[in-house]
Write a structure and sequence with these properties.
Layout: E1 5-12, E2 16-24, E3 29-38, E4 42-43, E5 46-47, H1 50-68, E6 74-79, E7 85-94, H2 104-114, E8 123-135, E9 138-141, E10 151-162, H3 163-175, E11 179-185, H4 186-194, H5 197-202, E12 204-209, E13 214-220, E14 223-230, H6 234-245, H7 249-259, E15 272-274, E16 285-287, H8 288-312, E17 323-326, H9 335-343, E18 347-349, E19 356-357, H10 368-382, H11 386-389, H12 398-405
Parallel strand pairs: 1-6, 3-19, 6-11, 12-17, 17-18
Antiparallel strand pairs: 1-2, 2-3, 4-5, 7-10, 8-9, 8-10, 12-13, 13-14, 15-16
The protein binds adenosine-5'-triphosphate (ATP) and magnesium ion.
């Protein structure tokens, strides 16, 4: 326990709340618990019923505290939901020192200037992520600190969310008796534990297929090109099954997880499955191939939406490191094949890294976001200041709005 610190990551998913607890040492991170609990009051990542969220959060944290045997007081929480936006921005500052040497403080000022963009009404900036700098006429600079010049310009990616959403989240956590250490856009956290530097440099996308949303984040040359939260998820596959088989959602979910595959070419055509097997009240039979075709169609819809987003940044079929699938929805059999056909890119299942754990579940793709939140929080602690020094930090403004928002 000596020289270690407990860090908690909270991922408020539309289907389930995921909590990961890590014990962080100087150069090591051990995940000591991963907990999942059904979430209520969240629709497509957006809080729609505060009371329900508070009650699900309380139950989740009780479960987590029972597992680890000590209380959790503060969390690093992921921000998600279909309202999250990303846009590019620029900030320019003059370097007025006689010797013209660029200091960390100048980078900070340039990032502040990049925040003064015209944000849509009722939106708050979550992150200002520096991409590339320009010093006088020299372009393509990754780290300007120590260089000399009179004009410093930063090109940054800004991530925003509806103020009301952030306020609701802060309120729910406050009501649960939890302090917020950091709020981090979920897709950034997921990418942190799934991707390595090489993939980010080459060009790669992460597709986090959740219950009712699919997060897309694209990197190239180490920078974020775009983020998008698509309003479709694995629940839509379940709904299609329920409609086709005229079953309840819970039966359809069971069928999807236990018999579902999206690769209809690989299933036995005529093998009949009796619906009675799942619910005494249900009549009839269906073939594995019929089921697979329904699932395949929905998966294609998800990938088509993702491909459309890639096309808007001219990256459709053009990501050398391919697309990495994560989230609970990525566990569907046959999904990699369907994604390859639809996206015409290399497709891989994501594997979380950057930690050790004795828990097999820590490698489950549904926990990638909660664990990524811990990894990002730890990195910020290790290099606090350095993230600003090298101009690559994403935490430059995290606490600012938080202070503005409390008390509720
Ligand atoms: N083995 C499996 N096969 C198919 N689907 C699965 C499997 N395991 C989980 N899922 C699906 O994954 C989905 C939940 O994924 P996840 O936990 O990542 O979502 P979430 O984070 O709660 O939601 P969101 O990210 O949309 O807010 C559910 O729809 C579930 O049916
Ligand atoms: Mg999720």
């Amino acid at each position: 326990m000596a020289n270690s610190k407990i860090i908690t990551g909270l991922d408020l998913g539309s289907g389930t709340i995921k909590i990961a607890v890590g014990q962080a040492y100087q150069d090591e991170l051990e995940i000591i618990a991963v907990i999942e609990h059904p979430s209520e009051g969240i629709n497509k990542g957006v809080i729609v019923d505060v009371e329900e969220v508070v009650s699900s959060l309380s139950a989740s944290f009780e479960k987590a505290e029972r597992t680890i045997g000590f209380p959790i007081n503060s969390v690093n929480v992921g921000i998600s939901g279909t309202n999250v936006l990303s846009q590019e921005s620029r900030g320019v500052v003059a370097i007025s020192r006689a010797e013209g040497e660029i200091k960390r403080e100048d980078v900070r000022r340039a990032l502040d200037a990049a925040q003064t963009i015209a944000t849509p009404p009722n939106y708050e900036i979550l992150h200002v992520i520096p991409k590339i700098f320009k010093v006088d006429n020299q372009i393509g600079i990754k780290d300007p600190v120590g260089m000399t010049g009179v004009r410093l310009e930063v090109e940054a990616q800004i991530i925003l969310d509806l103020s009301r959403q952030i306020k609701n989240l802060v309120y729910c956590l406050h009501r649960t008796g939890l302090e917020i250490e950091r709020t981090i856009f979920s897709a950034l956290a997921t990418a942190e534990t799934i991707l390595d530097k090489k993939q980010k440099d080459l060009g790669v996308a992460v597709l986090d297929i959740g219950e009712s949303t699919t997060h897309l984040i694209v990197y190239e040359e180490g920078d974020i090109l775009t983020v998008k939260i698509l309003p479709i998820g694995s629940r839509d596959i379940t709904s299609s099954i329920a409609i086709a088989l005229r079953s309840s959602i819970s039966v359809a979910e069971m069928i999807k997880v236990n018999f579902g595959t999206s690769d209809y070419r690989k299933v036995k055509k005529n093998e009949q499955i009796d619906l009675k097997k799942f619910d005494e009240g249900l009549e009839g039979q269906f073939t594995q191939q019929f089921l697979a075709k329904i699932i395949h169609e929905k998966c294609q819809e998800i990938f088509k939406m993702a491909d459309k987003e890639l096309a808007t940044i001219s990256k459709s079929r053009k990501l050398p490191a391919g697309v990495i699938l994560v989230g609970g929805g990525s566990k569907l059999l046959g999904l990699v094949e369907t994604a390859k056909d639809a996206l015409k890119l290399p497709i891989f299942l994501g594997k979380a890294k950057g930690f050790s754990s004795e828990l097999k579940e820590a490698l489950d793709p549904k926990f990638a976001t909660a664990i990524g939140l811990i990894i990002l929080a730890k990195e910020e602690k290790d290099h606090f200041g350095a993230s600003i020094r090298d101009g690559r930090g994403i935490f430059s403004i995290i606490k600012k709005w938080f202070k503005n928002l409390l008390p509720y």
